Predict the 3D structure of the following.
Amino acid sequence: QVQLVESGGGLVQPGGSLRLSCAASGFTFSRYYMRWYRQAPGKEREFLEGLSSDEITNADSTYYSDSVQGQFTISRNNAKDTLYLQMNSLKPEDTAVYYCNAGALWGQGTQVTVSS
């Protein structure tokens, strides 16, 4: 089955950290440019970060939104077909549903709530 499944969300206090995971199945994960997005209540879905993977050179190219550069870090493990998002110094405004994306394929999202 072709799918993306996010996990790792939850409730965290301001200043805390979370690591989100996105498990891919049913397609050749290593060949896809992967992205993280988020959508806060009442707002449009926002691009956060993207990570390509060059299978030939084993080099990755990373693209960040200005809003999270230096705070969030995207990574991938092609051997495990998994995408990650390390989120540090979380703020209440980071509260949103976080989604991973591969082309036209979206996961179901994982809720992140930053609150004291």
